[in-house]
Amino acid sequence: MKTFTFLLTIIVASILFSCNSTKYPEYIKKTDSLLASLDSISVKYHEINYGSVKIMFDLVSKNHELIKENESLDLANNQELKQDLFQYGRIHKAFKKYLKEYDKTNSDIEFNKNQLNTFKDDISNNLISEENIIKFYDDELKAHSNLVETINFYNHDVSTSIKLYKEIHTRMSEFLTPSTKNE
After folding, report:
1. pTM of the full structure
2. Per-residue pLDDT tens digits for 52-64
3. What b/e readout covers 110-128, taking b as 16+ CB neighbours within 10 angstroms?
4. CB neighbours of 124 closer than 8 A, spacing ≥ 6?
5. For residue range 75-115, what is the model confidence (pLDDT) as tens digits?
6. 33-85 residue pLDDT tens
7. DSSP readout, 2-52?
8. Read out DSSP for 143-163?
9. Which of 97, 84, 85, 108 is nearest to 53 (CA)?
């Protein structure tokens, strides 16, 4: 009887183990690596304070318009002001694109995360054929790489624009007349 119980335990354990084991553990590891990378880049993306960027964007927009409307400014002979206006335009463009794409980028992060988790589950449950697993992984890797590239671009562009904003915003505000000054 002990032998029968022992053999039954081994058979049941073997069946359970074979149901839970995957044929492709290396792809689970690769997918886990992509998920870890996605978590890291997501944290990096959210380090930029959306609310602060929105406030800076609004100030840049308002001051840019006030300066353009101020007829007492001599733009033709003031190279510093012209350069700062150009930089303000660059800041405005970077902030505007970031704010416009923020929700979409967050959705893309969540979508990519869900895709990777589903892919990992399908691998774990041996639901993907051998001929498709490499193709599907390559597709997931490409989507992940594109998202990482987009996030890295926004982080660099917005971070650079924030630094530039801090350098020139006060100077730009000083060009405004006292009656229209905005700080």
Report:
1. 0.77
2. 999 999 999 988 7
3. eebbebbeebbebbbebeb
4. 20, 22, 28
5. 678 788 788 888 988 999 999 999 999 999 999 999 999 99
6. 999 999 999 999 999 999 999 999 999 998 878 877 776 667 678 788 788 88
7. HHHHHHHHHHHHHHHHHHH--S-HHHHHHHHHHHHHHHHHHHHHHTS-HHH
8. HHHHHHHHHHHHHHHHHHHHH
9. 97
- Number of neighbours of residue 63 by Cβ within 10 angstroms: 22
What residue type is assigned to position 182 of the chain? N
Sign of the four-CA dihedral 3, 5, 8, 13 = negative
Token code pair at residue 115: 């895709």
- 12-26 burial, b if ≥16 CB within 10 A, otherwise e? eeeeeeeeeebebee
Please report, in angstroms and rounded to a whole number, the separation of the first and last CA atoms in the chain: 87
Two structure tokens written together for 24: 């492709």
Q: Which residue has the tokens 């007829």?
A: 71
Our measurement of the distance from residue 75's CA atom to the centroid of its chain's CA atoms, rounded to an integer in Å, reads 38
- DSSP 8-state assignment for residue 88: H
Q: Which two tokens stand for residue 33?
A: 């690596």
